[in-house]
Automatic annotation (TrEMBL):
<keyword id="KW-0274">FAD</keyword>
<keyword id="KW-0547">Nucleotide-binding</keyword>
<feature type="binding site">
    <location>
        <position position="319"/>
    </location>
    <ligand>
        <name>FAD</name>
    </ligand>
</feature>
<dbReference type="InterPro" id="IPR016156">
    <property type="entry name" value="FAD/NAD-linked_Rdtase_dimer_sf"/>
</dbReference>
<dbReference type="GO" id="GO:0004148">
    <property type="term" value="F:dihydrolipoyl dehydrogenase (NADH) activity"/>
</dbReference>
<keyword id="KW-0963">Cytoplasm</keyword>
<comment type="function">
    <text>The branched-chain alpha-keto dehydrogenase complex catalyzes the overall conversion of alpha-keto acids to acyl-CoA and CO(2). It contains multiple copies of 3 enzymatic components: branched-chain alpha-keto acid decarboxylase (E1), lipoamide acyltransferase (E2) and lipoamide dehydrogenase (E3).</text>
</comment>
<keyword id="KW-0560">Oxidoreductase</keyword>
<dbReference type="InterPro" id="IPR004099">
    <property type="entry name" value="Pyr_nucl-diS_OxRdtase_dimer"/>
</dbReference>
<feature type="binding site">
    <location>
        <position position="278"/>
    </location>
    <ligand>
        <name>NAD(+)</name>
    </ligand>
</feature>
<dbReference type="InterPro" id="IPR012999">
    <property type="entry name" value="Pyr_OxRdtase_I_AS"/>
</dbReference>
<feature type="domain" description="FAD/NAD(P)-binding">
    <location>
        <begin position="5"/>
        <end position="334"/>
    </location>
</feature>
<feature type="active site" description="Proton acceptor">
    <location>
        <position position="451"/>
    </location>
</feature>
<feature type="domain" description="Pyridine nucleotide-disulphide oxidoreductase dimerisation">
    <location>
        <begin position="353"/>
        <end position="462"/>
    </location>
</feature>
<dbReference type="GO" id="GO:0006103">
    <property type="term" value="P:2-oxoglutarate metabolic process"/>
</dbReference>
<dbReference type="InterPro" id="IPR036188">
    <property type="entry name" value="FAD/NAD-bd_sf"/>
</dbReference>
<feature type="binding site">
    <location>
        <begin position="325"/>
        <end position="328"/>
    </location>
    <ligand>
        <name>FAD</name>
    </ligand>
</feature>
Length: 478
């Protein structure tokens, strides 16, 4: 007799591991299947996010920012730090240690919550049976009342730039360079391309980002994207829009990329090339042909608003389903599904998932952009506040960027908060909380914000919506 669980989760990324922990907390007998092997050759939990995504990229962003500050930001404070150098292997080693600590921590959480870890590859069979092929090749079948598919995503590869070990790499390879490349090419000016490009630019690489679209960050509010492009360009990132990569050729230790832009075909040679053109769901060998779960031609598993697939008792969450490919979206879906399985009426507000780009300054937003609202014919009032007018930002010598609050012109309800500036990721969360409770710009303006904080920029932008900002001249006075 095969072992039977209330819930079997396939994949231990931020979607799967969170779902498994929540299900176990709710008293459900839960197993989670994971096959990914980390650098030490052992199964490593945490998925893309902890192993090769959010966490390692932020570790390198933080290290490289400190180096950059020591070089260029200290002088203004009267700090002289000559001969600051970077030890790349030490920086990578620190990143690896953080990954090890966090991924190991998930195993501890599984034990503490009573989640059974099944190491190996999981495959959904008919009738909610799940086949687990262990790392030794042995298979076992477990039975489940509920199955949660959380198989995540992997980088897209494009024919013009096939990966070549150590030279043409995806985001995972770009987290493990052993030295700073002199000339770095990045294909794709999306979140991942900009973050990884920034890491190596701060350490001294000459970075060229090749982006096929004419528009920079099309999902962002246009004002934020325009400001972002201006600031990143000033930092030395050469972002070439309207530039489509059509081929690449590796010669020895360098790669020559062919691309077309408005002037025709061109070539440029780099020491390393990062392919960051997006991610696609992982569903290879996940679904037996008779399991009943359907996916589209790109591999996304079809689900409804509650992450239920077409098979009762089978759910799918995170990067392998529709929606933003973000860790916090995956985790919240995991919680929602676990709670629904336990009989709760959980749901998720897909309209208020914050997006963040961890460049410096960070860019972050929640809700709708001004252009999207205008396209929908919604009349809005907009308030902005530049960090250049924030005392706290001045004290920190970190004044680039602005906060923008968009409110419905009729009801004053906040419909979007868009920020580029220091700690934008944390500041935008205040906007998200306010919006979840249906706050008006006036409500936000009436809150008491500590002084001096970066958060005051959000306060002032909310006041500016109705012409009441104190520390800048208002465009309209009331
Ligand atoms: P994943 O994290 O991909 O996890 C899926 C897991 O399932 C994997 O461990 C995989 O091995 C396992 N698996 C798949 N199939 C099977 C199977 N058949 N059997 C057993 N196991 C299986 N998001 C943010 O929100 N913030 C960030 O700052 C951020 N930075 C990023 C930086 C980079 C460089 C990258 C690449 C991504 C980043 N992301 C970020 C995106 C984030 O990592 C993903 O959105 C998130 O990991 C999705 O979670 P998931 O659980 O759906 O899938
Ligand atoms: P994202 O999906 O946000 O990670 O962004 C990936 C980016 O890569 C998108 O903006 C694409 O337009 C861009 N892209 C995809 N293929 C190419 C290509 N061949 N040349 C240049 N840019 C590309």
């Amino acid at each position: 007799m095969s072992e039977k669980f209330d819930v079997v989760v396939i994949g231990a990324g931020p979607g799967g591991y969170v779902a498994a922990i929540r299900a176990a907390q709710l008293g459900l007998k839960t197993a989670c299947i994971e096959r990914y092997k980390g650098k030490e050759g052992k199964v490593s939990l945490g998925g893309t996010c902890l192993n090769v995504g959010c966490i390692p990229s932020k570790a390198l962003l933080d290290s490289s920012y400190k180096f950059h500050e020591a070089h260029e930001g200290f002088k203004v404070h009267g700090i002289d730090a000559p001969n600051v150098t970077i030890d790349v292997p030490a920086m990578i080693g620190r990143k690896d240690q953080i990954v090890k600590n966090l991924t190991g921590g998930i195993g501890t959480l599984f034990k503490a919550n009573g989640v059974t870890l099944l190491e190996g590859h999981g495959k959904l069979l008919a009738n909610k049976q799940v086949e687990v092929t262990g790392l030794d090749g042995q298979t076992q079948v477990v039975e489940a009342t509920n199955v949660i598919l959380a198989s995540g995503s992997r980088p897209i590869e494009i024919p013009p730039a096939p990966l070549v070990e150590g030279i043409v790499v995806d985001s995972t390879g770009a987290l493990d360079f052993t030295e700073v490349p002199k000339r770095l090419g990045v294909i794709g000016a999306g979140v991942i391309g900009l973050e990884l490009g920034s890491v190596w630019a701060r350490l001294g690489a000459e970075v060229t980002v090749l982006e096929a679209l004419d528009k920079f960050l099309p999902a962002a509010d246009e004002q934020i994207a325009k400001e972002g492009l201006k600031i990143l360009t000033k930092q030395g990132l050469n972002v070439r829009l309207g530039t489509r990569v059509t081929g690449s050729e590796v010669n020895g230790n360098e790669v020559t990329v062919t691309f077309t832009d408005s002037t025709g075909e061109q070539k440029q040679t780099f020491d390393k090339l990062i392919v960051a053109v997006g991610r696609r769901p992982v569903t290879t060998d996940l679904l037996a042909s008779d399991c009943g779960v359907e996916s589209d031609e790109r591999g996304y598993i079809y689900v409804d608003d509650y992450c239920a697939t077409s098979v009762p008792g089978v759910y799918a969450i995170g990067d392998c389903v529709r929606g933003l490919m973000l860790a916090h979206k995956a985790s919240e879906e995991g919680v929602m599904v676990a709670e629904r399985i336990a009989g709760h009426k959980a749901q998720m507000n897909y309209d208020l998932i914050p997006s963040v780009i961890y460049t410096h300054p960070e860019m972050a937003w929640v809700g709708k952009t001004e252009q999207a609202l205008k396209a929908e014919g919604v009349e809005v009032n907009v308030g902005t506040f530049p960090f250049a007018a924030s005392g706290r930002a001045m004290a920190a010598n970190d004044t680039a960027g602005l906060v923008k609050v968009i409110a419905d012109a009729k009801t004053d309800r906040v419909l979007g908060v868009h920020i580029i500036g220091p700690s934008a990721a944390d500041l935008v969360q205040q906007g998200a909380i306010a919006m979840e409770f249906g706050t008006s710009a006036e409500d936000l303006g009436m809150m008491v914000f500590s002084h001096p904080t970066l958060s005051e920029a959000l306060h002032e932008a909310a006041l500016a919506v109705n012409g009441h900002a104190i520390h800048i001249a208002n465009r309209k006075k009331r």
